[in-house]
Write a structure and sequence with these properties.
This protein has one domain: Exo-inulinase, domain 1 (Jelly Rolls, Sandwich). By secondary structure, it is mainly beta. The strands form two sheets. Strands 1, 3, 4, 6, 10, 11, 12 and 14 form an eight-stranded antiparallel β-sheet that branches.
Length: about 200
């Protein structure tokens, strides 16, 4: 009995003095990068008919002459894990811009292809390996859709409502850059974002 008690005591001391590695090195946590009430942390235009923040929703829309805009973060990011919820109805052309040279995760209808390319990557064209799969299974038109984008090294991965739709590898898009949200010029559109959060990766 004494031997058993001593062994248990030694094991307990070992755990307290030498904690498990996952406890000793805290994992990175998501940070909100949209306050829900204003555009702090973003480089918004001085005259700003394009973007508004109310009740936790960031809304982007064209001005009366159908000009567009990209709203960029003040901070640069390279490797990151980004989550947001996005919603629209009707035809839009929007997306998340990141890295340098700039890479885009498309939301809505491509101006060049005249077809919905949501979840696909745009590089100046839509490369076949960067096109979304399983989108009809994952995407809910007109509703809030959860989108997760992970950029790590030369690989870019997308989940829509927790279904993996896209994985694209391209070493060309390598440098850190601000993250942008797009309102495309030339069509009347409105897109909404909420719960924007990001986790920087090693």
């Amino acid at each position: 009995m004494k031997i058993f008690c001593l062994a248990a005591l030694a094991l307990n001391l070992a755990f307290n003095v030498f904690p498990a590695t996952q406890d000793a090195v805290p994992a990175a946590v998501y940070e909100q990068f949209f306050t829900g009430t204003n555009l702090a942390g973003w480089n918004s235009p001085e005259a700003n008919p394009f973007w508004s923040a109310t009740k936790g929703i960031l809304k982007g829309q064209n001005d009366s002459s159908l000009k567009g805009n990209v709203l960029y973060t003040k901070k640069d990011y390279r490797n990151f894990d980004l989550e947001t919820e996005v919603r629209w109805s009707g035809e839009i052309d929007s997306g998340i811009m990141f890295r340098k040279p700039e890479l885009q995760l498309q939301f809505g209808v491509s101006r060049s292809l005249k077809t919905d390319m949501t979840g696909s990557f745009y590089t100046g064209k839509y490369p076949e390996p960067g096109r979304a799969r399983k989108l009809t299974e994952a995407f809910k038109p007109g509703e809030w859709n959860k989108v997760r984008l992970v950029a790590r090294g030369d690989t870019f991965t997308v989940w829509v409502n927790d279904i993996k739709t896209t994985e694209y590898t391209d070493p060309h898009f390598s440098a850190a850059a601000p993250i942008g949200l797009q309102v495309h010029p030339g069509l009347k559109m409105e897109v909404e974002f909420r719960n924007l959060k990001i986790k920087e990766l090693e």
